[in-house]
Amino acid sequence: MTNTQATDATVDLELVKMIDAVLAEHRATRPRSAPITRDIELWSRLDQLGLVRLSGSERSGGSGAGWHEAAELISAAVRHGVRAPLAEHDVLACWLLEAVGAPVDEVARTVCILDVAGTATAVPWASTADRIVVVWPDGADYLMADVDRTDLRITPGANLIGEPRDTVTADIAALSGRAVSAELVTQLRRKCALVRAIQVCAALDSILELSVEFAAARNQFGRPLSKFQAIQHLISDIAAEAALARAATEAALAAAVASDWSASSLGFLVAVARSCAGHATSVAVRNGHQIFGAIGSTVEHRLHEYTRAALAWRSEYGSVRHWDEEVTRAALVAGASGLWSLIAD
């Protein structure tokens, strides 16, 4: 899910190199001040390379890869500052269509869960998608429809880094929906949450890398910043928190993949990953900007691309407080006799 994910034996190293090269080239040719929208040229190139539907089944036009490869693609996009709805399209919207046996074509998609009034807020990339997979409650279960964007009312919005986070409103009475089980919707929610944890971890690793490079290169009072104990403490705290968040996220992803997203402890593991990633962001953002000083907040410097992104993503699909409460709730339910098995499972 970060640079270290490439060492996973299940991930094709040549694929990792190709992903990194394509996204690095795009980053090098794109103006930093350009507004964030879905880059049609990049999307077309990624589609030709089989990366837009990397985890989709081959029978439906996907590349047949798994979640580890998808996590590497998501992380690489973060490292290179490439903003695109890769996760929303591939492992969320198109996955759900495949799961219910609906047809999947090549147009760009995102997904959202509507409330009983037919509204969803902060929907990623809705204003730039071609179609939106909408899910809404229907008694104890749900219904789902793959809807053209023009058939929905979309109010544009954005998150802290300018990515589209729009309000989507649908006339659910006029939609023809397919049945979707509550279990599948729970799986969708967990996938959404874990995608953001993967992105936050990639941002934290980038903050750490930039901080180490800057501290080694910048001299103050006749010696590198890295020689000052206070700076060493700031960097080591970033490293420790980033490693904890990454370990928790990788544990949740490993359990999800091994169990086909059905592990009994998966809800707890996802909550732990999101909680750890959320709290790690506070430390990494604070320490990173202390190390860099004013330069880290300038438009020209890349630090704020990762710090603001981590802050934005940690609050999506559940706040830090929400995930802390989920961890606490699971621990209380497990009780003193079951807590260790919950953690060690």
CATH fold-type name of the largest domain: Butyryl-Coa Dehydrogenase, subunit A, domain 1
Count all strands and give the number: 9
Superfamily (CATH H level) name of the largest domain: Acyl-CoA dehydrogenase/oxidase, N-terminal domain
* End-to-end distance: 22 Å
Structural category: alpha+beta
Largest sheet: 4 strands, mixed
Based on Cα principal axes, name the global outline.
globular
Tally of alpha and pi helices = 9
**Proportion of residues in extended strands:** 5-15%
Q: How much helicity do the residues have?
A: 40-55%
Domain Acyl-CoA dehydrogenase/oxidase C-terminal: 196-314
GO molecular function: acyl-CoA dehydrogenase activity; flavin adenine dinucleotide binding
Pfam family, one: Acyl-CoA_dh_1
Cofactor: FAD
Helix and strand topology:
Elements: H1 13-29, H2 40-48, H3 67-79, H4 86-99, E1 109-113, E2 119-124, E3 131-138, E4 141-148, E5 153-155, E6 165-169, E7 178-180, H5 182-217, E8 219-220, E9 223-224, H6 229-258, H7 266-292, H8 303-314, H9 320-344
Parallel strand pairs: 1-3
Antiparallel strand pairs: 2-6, 3-4, 4-7, 5-6, 8-9
Helix pairs in contact: 1-3, 3-4, 3-5, 4-5, 5-6, 5-7, 5-8, 6-7, 7-8, 7-9
List keywords for this structure.
single chain; 345 residues; alpha+beta; Butyryl-Coa Dehydrogenase, subunit A, domain 1; Butyryl-CoA Dehydrogenase, subunit A, domain 3; four-stranded mixed β-sheet; three-stranded antiparallel β-sheet; 9 helices; 53% helix; globular; disordered N terminus; AcylCo_DH-like_C; FAD; flavin adenine dinucleotide binding
